[in-house]
Amino acid sequence: MNAPTEPPEPTFNMTHESTEPIEHITWNGQFIATILRQDFRPDKTTFITPDAYYQQTGLVVYPAGGVIKRHLHLPLQRHLVGTPEAILVRAGSVEVDLFGLDRTPLGTWVLKEGDLIILAGGGHGFRCLENTILLEVKQGPYTGLKEKEFF
User: Fold this and answer.
1) Rounded to an integer, what distance in angstroms lies between the CA atom of residue 2 and that of residue 19?
2) Contacts of 40 (CB under 8 A, 6+ apart)
3) How far apart, in Å, are the Cα atoms of 143 and each of 59, 139, 146, 147?
4) What is the pTM assigned to this prediction?
5) How far are the Cα atoms of 3, 11, 113, 125, 127 from residue 6, in angstroms, in the given order?
6) DSSP states of 95-134 as a string?
7) Which domains are assigned to the chain?
8) CB distance 70 to 64 below 8 Å
9) Residue 87, SS3?
10) Which residue in 60, 31, 48, 45 sits closest to 120, CA to CA?
11) How would you write the pLDDT of the chain (151 residues) with one tens digit per residue?
């Protein structure tokens, strides 16, 4: 996600004010995004993304003294199309506009410090509501090829 020289103009006014700790946004049966609010604290390990997501995301819960056994991940080959992203708001807040695969506007969601969004499909754009730091994790390796289409 490169910082634009000019902020994008809002194209619609459908702000979603969800209080749900986990929200799945879909379009025509296709997952577009999952939002995890910062205050979600499960009692047991909970994966928040559907099995079909390219990036499996969950909160893994351990008691004091819990141990994660040493391990390495086997070199499995996986095939994927697209560039899934996870964005964590480390500081500040943003509005995120989400779009279907055909660029249909789905709405605007506000993300606050500690909120996480997993972007699985469709389009998106962000507006920073205050000074903001985002942690972005996306599928690599970086190819140097054109991988974005601006609209």
Assistant:
1) 29
2) 21, 22, 59
3) 30, 11, 8, 9
4) 0.82
5) 9, 15, 23, 12, 10
6) EEEEE-TT--EEEEEEEETT-EEEE-SSEEEEEESSS-EE
7) 15-52+81-138 (2.60.120)
8) no
9) strand
10) 31
11) 555 445 445 445 566 777 789 999 999 999 999 999 999 999 999 999 888 888 889 999 999 999 999 999 999 888 777 788 999 999 999 999 999 999 999 999 999 999 999 999 999 999 999 999 999 998 777 777 777 888 9
Q: Residue 130 corresponds to which tokens in the numbers above?
A: 């205050």
Tokens of 99: 């779009």
State the pairing for strand pair 30-36/22-27: antiparallel
Under 8 Å CB-to-CB from 31, ≥6 apart: which residues? 24, 25, 50, 52, 53, 120, 121
- For residues 46 and 149, give the distance between their C-alpha atoms in angstroms, rounded to a whole number: 34
